Amino acid sequence: MRDVNTDALRGHMDALLLSVLESEPLHGYAIIEALQERSGGTLTVPTGTVYPALRRLEQAGYLASEWATVGGRKRRTYRLTSAGRTALAGERSAWQRFTSAIGSVLEPRPTK
Amino acid sequence: MRDVNTDALRGHMDALLLSVLESEPLHGYAIIEALQERSGGTLTVPTGTVYPALRRLEQAGYLASEWATVGGRKRRTYRLTSAGRTALAGERSAWQRFTSAIGSVLEPRPTK
DNA sequence: TTCTACATGTAGGCTGTCTATAGATAGAGT
DNA sequence: ACTCTATCTATAGACAGCCTACATGTAGAA
């Protein structure tokens, strides 16, 4: 049973991150847990993937961050910007087109 | 309207190629056309992607190829091996798990 | 004190997809 | 004859993003 991760995620990371941040602001560590939970334990995204990706999305203007201290620990909390919400909508429709296209190719056909 | 290609395909190319070769052997050029047709014109895979990928899959033992001359033109025709059929089955279930995982994360939720 | 959970972050590697380019034949149109 | 399009294979190098591994530190439980 091959892992879902490793490669296949490429190009979909942005959508995932924007999506978990849609309902509420979260910090990196919490985002990783949220992805794990929401995917039913299937998605285990390493920190070396998430933190750089978050910075990239902030750079792009889709996220904004601020530091907070909770229980003696420092967190950088990310929230969606309005541009981020627009981007998320685009990612969702892109995902629809993507799965539809791949799915129709992968559909089994009668052997000639 | 962003293109479906570019990045998102990464990690799914193998599944696509194995799938179009399931029903009948095809040569590279025909494979590209088949992908285009089956996806309803959405998937335009460049030759620089397909040919190396086919070689990689042959190297892996999932495909076998042989030269044929049709109308003065040389074609290298690829067909699925039995290992390739097994791999295709694996790719299909991986695709199911993949879309299920991403889909459940992307699903919109009520804002807190 | 040790272990686990919490929390952020970077450097470098890997690898597969894309762009761009090359070469060649066949057939239609001008 | 010439050009253009379609058919057909192929490679080199660029690019980008995900991963592994590592570094650093606090808090709380055993």
TrEMBL record, chains A, B:
Residues 17-89 form the Transcription regulator PadR N-terminal domain. It comes from the Bacteria. Transmembrane segments: none annotated. Pfam families: PadR. This is PadR family transcriptional regulator. It comes from Planobispora rosea.
